[in-house]
Structures are given as structure tokens and as C-alpha cells.
């Protein structure tokens, strides 16, 4: 990495993106611009989020999304903000969003990129002032530019991601992303309106002592998950569960730990969505030396068949994920 000397903690996101542009095999500047567009939308959502309690944007929007979830106002606002940012720049041809039933075809056939996005992750935490997030995956379209987008441009496995990231609107706001050459984290400086590199080259601990799972669903777990969580307790690990995937993932990435949203008897595919939740975090996990699996298979290798398909997710420190996986397979 020849740009290694040119950035350090405190480098702005803009400058970092420019310096790292050479990491892309087909560097044309468009992916860089796309990342900047996403960062701008994140700043706007951050602004809305931090004043949510004052500006009457808490609470339900009054509609149900395609998942059957009641949309919160901030779900809708964040979706609009990201849609706008992604459609104005010209780099994107299609968007998949949690809050949109169908693929959004931007009718921009010169756009090289497809984006899958969870505009606002952790909806149930908006009104109670707890960390929420945004998750995004970026793919290069498979069919040539100039032609209409096809299903194969959208239904790509996670291994095909050219970049992925998340924004955490937490005690501070952070943007963490990868372009397949390691993971870097940026902290937002509110008064300057800039993201600064604060967590260069994030490396996940190989092991940890935190487990994160919604234990309210325990009665629905398969034996392997039951046995694994029992073992966590035997070892006196700490239970930590925020209920915002981004925040739970981020904590475990930095501190070491495992997050599980397993298959349940009622929902054999779990709850989380492959295209705009699991894949992005799986790429980041792997790039940081952690792992992500659905219990038997690497998340990134799952071939999607539908837009909003769900997947069980076990993600975090590699030794923990391997152990959980082996208990699942031996008790299956
Ligand atoms: P979203 O708010 O984008 O719909 O995602 C909700 C997800 C995720 O953020 C979280 O980890 C999980 O749902 C929590 O589910 P439970 O309430 O079932 O634990
Ligand atoms: Mn939702
Ligand atoms: Mn989500
Ligand atoms: Mn969401």
C-alpha cells in the first residue's frame, strides 16, 4: 500500500478516500464519489437523529413496509435522504432498500454501481435515544453500462461487494467502511462537519467474552444455539444486546464477541436480511479478521434469490464463530 504514509489518525474522510482510490482495480473516481455521497447523507441523517426528540420526527409513520414492520418516521426520512444522495450522484443505476418493496431502477444506465441499503437500522431504539445505524453494500453491475439493469445485477452474492460500510449514530457518530483492503473507522466532528480517521485498520480480536442474542427467543432455538449460549454462561461471558445490529456488531468488532440472530423454529431463516444487513457486515467482519456464517455456510457465499430474503446470522470473533458453528453441526 503506497499510500500508507500519506494518512494517519486525523485524516479527513475525503482525503482518505482520495488517497485510497488506487486500491480499486478500476479506479475511475466514481466509487470514491459514491462513498462521499453516502457520507453526506449520513451527516444529514445524523442531524435529524440528534434532534429527533425535539423535532417531532419520533414515532410511527403510519405505514407498514414490505417486511411487515411498522415504519418509523425516521425510517422514512433516512430512506428519502439516502435515496436522494444515491440518485443525484450519477454513479448508481439501482438501489435495493429495506423500505422499498421493489428494486429502484434509477433509469441511469451509465451508472456502474448497485447499492443495497438499510437506511435506518435499529428502528425500535429511535424513540428511546439509543444507538441506531445505517448499513450499505456496493456492487458493480454485471451487465454492461448503457443497457437496462437485469436481475443478475441485483442478485449478487456478498463476495461480489466492491465496498460496504455502516454508520453508527451512537455516543459519537462513526462511519466504518471497507473496499476490500482492510477496515477503517471515521468519527464525525459535529462542529466541523467532517469525518476524521479515528480507527485505522480495524482488527477484530480473535476471541472475546461477550455474547449478543435476543434471549427472549430462546424457546425457539435449535439445540446447537442453546448449547453454545449455555457454554457462554458456563464461562461467565457478558451478555450485551442493544437491539440495533450496527451497534451490537460494532461493539463486538472492537472488543471481541459474537452476535447471533439464529434461525428459530418459527422463522427458519432468522430475522435479518441478507442483502442490506448481513452481507455488508460480513464483508467488514472478514476484512477485520472476524467471521460471519448462517450456521453452516459463509454469509458472503449465499446466492440471493429474493430481494428481502432473510438469513440466520452468527458474526464476530473468529474463534467464537467457529465454536458456535461446530456445536450447531454436531447437534443438528
Ligand atoms: P431494522 O430496524 O432495520 O428493521 O432492523 C432491526 C433488526 C436489527 O437492528 C436488530 O439487531 C434486530 O432487528 C433486533 O431484533 P429483535 O428485536 O428481534 O431482537
Ligand atoms: Mn425495519
Ligand atoms: Mn436493520
Ligand atoms: Mn432498517
From TrEMBL:
| UniProt GO cellular component terms | cytosol
Q: Which UniProt keywords apply?
A: Carbohydrate metabolism, Cytoplasm, Hydrolase, Magnesium, Metal-binding
Gene encoding it? fbp
**Where, in this chain's numbering, is Mg(2+) 1 bound?**
98, 118, 120
Using the record's annotation, list all stretches that form the Fructose-1-6-bisphosphatase class I N-terminal domain: 12-200
Q: What is its EC number?
A: 3.1.3.11
Q: What is this protein called?
A: Fructose-1,6-bisphosphatase class 1
Name the residues that bind substrate.
121-124, 214, 241, 259-261, 271
Natural source organism: Algoriphagus aquimarinus
Amino acid at each position: 500500500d503506497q499510500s500508507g504514509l500519506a494518512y494517519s489518525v486525523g485524516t479527513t474522510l475525503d482525503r482518505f478516500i482520495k488517497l485510497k482510490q488506487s486500491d480499486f482495480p478500476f479506479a475511475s473516481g466514481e466509487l470514491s464519489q459514491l462513498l462521499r455521497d453516502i457520507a453526506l447523507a449520513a451527516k444529514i441523517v445524523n442531524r435529524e437523529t440528534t434532534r429527533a426528540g425535539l423535532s417531532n420526527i419520533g414515532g410511527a409513520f403510519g405505514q407498514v413496509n414490505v417486511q411487515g414492520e411498522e415504519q418509523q418516521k425516521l425510517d422514512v426520512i433516512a430512506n428519502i435522504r439516502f435515496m436522494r444522495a444515491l440518485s443525484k450522484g450519477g454513479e448508481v443505476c439501482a438501489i435495493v432498500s429495506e423500505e422499498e418493496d421493489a428494486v429502484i431502477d434509477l433509469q441511469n444506465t451509465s451508472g456502474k454501481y448497485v447499492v443495497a441499503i438499510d437506511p435506518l437500522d435499529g428502528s425500535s431504539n429511535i424513540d428511546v435515544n439509543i444507538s441506531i445505524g445505517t448499513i450499505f453494500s456496493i456492487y458493480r453491475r454485471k451487465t454492461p453500462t448503457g443497457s437496462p439493469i437485469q436481475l443478475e445485477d441485483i442478485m449478487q452474492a456478498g463476495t461480489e461487494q466492491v465496498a460496504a460500510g455502516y454508520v453508527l449514530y451512537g455516543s459519537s457518530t462513526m462511519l466504518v467502511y471497507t473496499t476490500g483492503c482492510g477496515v477503517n473507522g471515521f468519527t464525525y466532528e459535529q462542529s466541523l462537519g467532517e469525518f476524521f480517521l479515528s480507527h485505522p485498520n480495524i482488527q477484530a480480536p480473535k476471541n472475546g467474552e461477550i455474547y449478543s442474542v435476543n434471549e427472549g427467543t430462546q424457546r425457539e432455538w435449535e439445540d446447537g444455539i442453546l448449547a453454545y449460549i449455555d457454554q457462554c454462561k458456563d464461562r461467565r461471558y457478558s451478555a450485551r444486546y442493544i437491539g440495533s445490529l450496527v451497534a451490537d456488531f460494532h461493539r463486538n468488532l472492537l472488543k471481541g464477541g459474537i452476535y447471533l440472530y439464529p434461525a428459530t423454529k418459527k422463522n427458519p431463516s432468522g430475522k435479518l436480511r441478507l442483502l442490506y444487513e448481513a452481507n455488508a457486515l460480513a464483508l467488514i467482519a472478514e476484512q477485520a479478521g472476524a467471521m460471519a456464517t448462517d450456521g453452516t455456510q459463509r454469509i458472503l457465499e449465499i446466492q440471493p434469490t429474493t430481494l428481502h430474503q432473510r438469513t440466520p446470522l452468527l458474526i464476530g470473533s473468529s474463534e467464537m464463530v467457529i465454536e458456535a458453528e461446530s456445536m450447531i453441526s454436531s447437534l443438528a
